[in-house]
Amino acid sequence: MTSVSEPDDRGRLLTFAMAWYRYGGGSGEDIFLEFGLTEAAYFQRLLVLVSDGATGLPADVRAAVAAVCENRLHAARSGGGQDVTAAG
Q1: pLDDT above 80 for 86
Q2: Which structural domain, as residue segments, surrounds residue 54?
Q3: 82 with 27: CB under 8 angstroms?
Q4: Could you read off the pLDDT of 45-83 as tens digits, one per residue?
């Protein structure tokens, strides 16, 4: 998996994730404009970050963010776009 090593990157990823995870994670365009990353790269990095437990986020929020990451990564692998059912 991709490493997330820079503290500034971690903060930016978490800030964006906190704003968008309830809505399915943000659009691919917003992710690219904010980070210069593909959706897959962004969600891989975010998943690593929330999986290590060192974010200071409550376990339920980490689990919800991880679920969004996994959903979006699955959608990317299957050739689909954003799975809007995750926005629930």
Answers
A1: no
A2: 7-78
A3: yes
A4: 999 999 987 788 999 999 999 999 999 999 988 876 554
C-alpha 78/C-alpha 88 separation (Å) is: 20
| CB half-sphere exposure, 46, CA atoms < 13 A | 34
Question: Within a domain: residue 85?
Answer: no
- Which two three-digit tokens encode residue 24? 């399915």
CA distance 54 to 50: 7
DSSP assignment letter at 72 = H
The closest of 9, 11, 63, 15 to 41, measured between CA atoms, is 9
Indicate whether this model's pTM tops 0.70. yes
| 44 domain residue, yes or no | yes
Backbone angles phi, psi at 26, to 5 degrees: 90, 160
Question: Alpha-carbon torsion 34, 20, 39, 65, what sign?
Answer: positive
